[in-house]
Amino acid sequence: MNHRSFARPALGLLLATCAVPALSQNASPPPEAGAADRAAMAELLATDEYILRIQALDDNGPRLNAVIDYDPAAPVKARQLLGTGVLRGRTVLVKDNVETAEWPTTAGSLALKDNATGRDAPLIALMRKNGGVVLGKTNLSEWANIRSDNSTSGWSAVGGLTRNPFAIDRNTCGSSSGSGAAIAAGFAWAAIGTETNGSITCPASINGLVGFKPSVGIVSRTHVVPISSTQDTAGPMAKTVYDAALLLTAIAGEDAADPVTREAKRVKDYTEGLETASLKGVRIGVLRSAVGSRPDVKALFEAALADLTRAGAVLVDVEYAPPSEMWGASLPVLLYELRVEMDKYLAGRPVSTGPRSLAEVVAFNSANAREELRWFGQELFEQALETNDAEAYEKNLATLRRLTRAEGIDKLLADNKVAFLVAPTTGPAWTTDLVNGDNFGGRIGAGYLAAIAGYPHITVPMGAVEGLPVGFSIMGGQWQDHDVLKAGAAYEKARTAVLPAPRFRPWRPAGE
Q: Is 75 helix (H, G, I), strand (E, B) or coil?
């Protein structure tokens, strides 16, 4: 059941049956010099429509459950900010594990339903300073999908089950599920998601969006409900690479409370050079082992590679198989960091109610099992409480850094003399099944490499399987965020695939 903290116009069931304007699915080019205000004005004109679409498609109609809270005054606020900062009044939806002053930040859990801190996360404060308007908060996979390894992505006790706009009986993937579904449905200009391992890129791929996971440290993590100190990052989800780069420009910055941000190598404007970005002569590593076993996904990927070749890129097949040692080290690192970081966050909240530690969250869930544990358990939380060997943690972390950086992405780029690595992001959306959990299949994608290494990763739509979007991943080395964005923009220009439009109905075979 969605909750709403702000009063909103009562348009009733009329909106459930009203004609909803079709969404443009073509990547819009970056605005020319001098046209930035015109582009911002077009966004302002769309802001009223965003509210209507939320009411028609989220509150009523297919009930996507993508948005938990929204501000009906956002159009007024947007008009007041025309000409302010790089965003010039553009509206942004924010995943509900990132603190905003207006609403409680719940991470989807009833344990945090009253977590109204009254503060903005630094990344949100930066966004507002740069002319952005917080339109609302989006649903997510509860606790960013770290509670259980048998969860259903897109479900939280606070927001219910998020539905995919392309097929409402299909999954939205990853923990930034509401952010992905909301932008695909046309509920805001762009959204902020967070990723530990795939939670920006997977929902972006499955919802037909551009999703960018920055190098860890480009964006502050302060006042964001945490999982991992070494892998967590916020990032943009948008319709085009340009829009994702513009939002990144607005939220990137150093934060004294987040030491890793002081090490980051940023650029002032991540949109610079996107319009002229070229792949001519650029060597690109193709991770054939990450294409997976689905012929339909392979066909889309081959078409994307052909687009790259026509754009002048030089493709190099790159052999890679993840060592088993990586998987043995990965989960213990996450569980150790989860316990440490969650305890720190919960204990430091300026709110008198709710849990102060991960152990108290586990106790809350057990006491409220009907609402919280009906569909899946909390075995990963329970394991995290027992994962407290600091020496083992340091050893595992060193192993992960070695295998994903020096002997992983860095080595693959250097040995093959390539600038980027590419692969399909993931497969098409599977049928949502609360009883049996998620159904990832086909062994598709290699985003875990960039996630564990803390390196940049962009996914750009490359087509669809039976009306279900599939993304194209581009990964680079640490702090190569701007280069990865430019490569994404160049692919976007070269893409020949026809992209599908959301249908807001259960999936049917093409043509039906």
A: helix
Query: What residues contact residue 146 under an 8 Å CB cut-off, 6+ apart?
Result: 196, 227, 334, 338, 380, 381
User: DSSP 3-state assignment of 23?
Assistant: coil
Q: Label each residue of 108-130 as H, E or C.
A: CCHHHCCCCCCCCCHHHHHHHHC
φ, ψ of residue 297 in degrees (nearest 5): -70, -40
3-state SS assignment for residue 133: strand
Q: Classify the phi-psi angles of 95: left when phi > 0, otherwise alpha if psi is within -120 to 50, otherwise beta.
A: beta
Catalytic choice (177, 199, 205, 220) = 199
Catalytic residue among 148, 153, 156, 175: 175
User: Under a CB-based contact definition with an 8 Å cutoff, are residues 295 and 157 in contact?
Assistant: no
Q: What is the pLDDT of residues 10-41, one digit of tens each?
A: 333 223 333 454 444 444 455 554 567 777 78
Q: How many CA atoms lie within 13 A of 71 on its CB side?
A: 20
Neighbours of 317 (CB within 10 A): 10
| Residue in the structure block whose two tokens are 């939670």 | 199
User: Between the CA of residue 214 and those of 140, 231, 250, what are the distances in Å?
Assistant: 20, 10, 13
How far is C-alpha 44 from the chain's CA centre? 24
Alpha carbon 171 to chain centroid distance?
14
Q: Which amino acid belongs to residue 46?
A: A
Residue found by looking up tokens 């964005």 in the block: 485
Both tokens of 254, joined, read 């150093």
**pLDDT, tens digit, for every residue of 231-271?**
999 999 999 999 999 999 999 999 999 999 999 999 999 99
Give the pair of three-digit tokens for residue 252: 């990137």
Residue 199 designated active-site: yes
Q: Which of 323, 262, 313 is nearest to 283 (CA)?
A: 313
3-state SS string for 292-307: CCCHHHHHHHHHHHHH
H or E, element range at 233: strand 233-238
**Ranges of the chain whose pLDDT falls below 70:** 1-35
Round to whole Å and give the CA distance between 146 and 99. Answer: 19
Residue for token pair 């998987």: 327
Segment (H or E) for 18: none
The β-bridge partners of 471 are: 461
Residue 468: what are its φ and ψ, rounded to 5°? -105, 120
Residue 199 token pair? 């939670």
Query: Token pair of 318, please?
Result: 């790159």
> Is 95 an annotated catalytic residue?
yes
Contacts of 4 (CB under 8 A, 6+ apart): 68, 69, 70
Sign of CA dihedral 176, 181, 184, 186: negative
Residues found in the chain? 512
Which option is the CATH number for 36-494: 3.90.1310.10, 3.60.21.10, 3.90.1300.10, 3.40.309.10?
A: 3.90.1300.10
